[in-house]
Amino acid sequence: MTEEGGVETTVVVIREYDPKTDRESVEQVESSCEVGPNGELSLYTDLLGDPICRVRNSPLYLMLVAEIVNNNNTNHETKQIVGMIRGCIKTVTCGTKFSRNKSADPPKPLPVYTKLAYILGLRVSPFHRRMGIGLKLVNRIEQWFGDNGAEYSYIATDDANEPSVSLFTGKCGYTKFRNPSVLVHPVFAHRLNVSNRVTIIKLTPSDSESIYRNRFSTTEFFPRDIDSVLNNQLNLGTFLAVPRGYIWDGSGKFLSDPPENWAIMSVWNCKDVFKLEVKGASKLRKGLAKTSRILDRVFPFLRLPSLPKIFSPFGFHMLYGFGGSGPMYTKYAKDLFGFAHNLAKEYKCGVVATEVSSEDPLKLAIPHWKVLSFTDLWCMKRLGEDYSDGSVGDWRKSQPGLSIFVDPREI
């Protein structure tokens, strides 16, 4: 965009983020923008001095900034960063095909992979909106996606965030794809109970990878580089819930002869990446929250529900990779959630969160507070006509499965 009036020229430049010169300006724009729709309460992020933190752990990533450059008749030039966007690329499961066996064995389901790009952290200063800057940022990051072989691009936004939904579906060619649920639970001052009929085992990254690849590689959005996720320093561990008395003898034995009921879950430490803060709360609401914490701390045996300090910067843990089998699966998953809550309490986190498919039975089984939880909207765009595997066709037209695999590197 170029505007000329007299001898003054204004140009919007889209360029790559420079951490040496841009960090302070980017943080100012970030702090001026809300995450989610406008309302009484707004959610703000503190990126802890690293604007790339939310994509840094992805296999391939880029951050762009939008900069307004003004030139006047004295050849004086001023520059101002007014927006930014992050993007990353990975390879994920987009569908399933079946092996062609010559033996009498039934066909084995195999994952179909695609190269997927993800857009997150699109921000435009409130004083520079409705100028087409957001669209320019999206167009440029999509060009980078295409140059690096991405076949699809998707974004995640709050289903109620009308400006974001309008931009991507109305101007950028995205279609509504999935509606997963973000389930958020406060970390109480008291610990949650975990059934004494269940044993929870912390797995090695190698055993975790074996189980995930064997049982979940055909799950939609499963990352092909799951080993990189599990070996990342932010991954606090993968935990397996099995019947009490079950003897663990490695993933090989487990996969060949699993117990009737079991559940698995991994924990990602978002607290060391960025923090959140709820602003706009009334003094009354803050006072009630503080009172609930005091009562819970003084009388933990009463197990009173309490709201943590979400009105000041707080960290959280992301629970991902939920799965399992058996008639008691959801109860085992609930025990894993209790274990994760207690772990987050030790790490002094404010909340624990997970994201599940709208079709997943875990949506009803996992404890969460409706006032903190919300429906997410994933929108997808097809970037090209050539595909690495034709077994799926156009992924956008596929029906949702019972579950999705949420990659914690891009929260």
Automatic annotation (TrEMBL):
Record domain N-acetyltransferase: where: 12-193
Top-level taxon in the UniProt lineage: Eukaryota
Keyword Transferase: yes
Listed GO MF terms: acyltransferase activity, transferring groups other than amino-acyl groups
InterPro entries noted in UniProt: Acyl_CoA_acyltransferase, GNAT_dom, Plant_NAT
One Pfam family from the record: Acetyltransf_1
Annotated coiled-coil segments of the chain: none
UniProt-listed Gene3D superfamilies: 3.40.630.30
Entry-linked CDD domains: NAT_SF (cd04301)
Keyword terms, alphabetized: Acyltransferase, Transferase
Similarity field: Belongs to the acetyltransferase family.
Protein name per Swiss-Prot or TrEMBL: N-acetyltransferase domain-containing protein
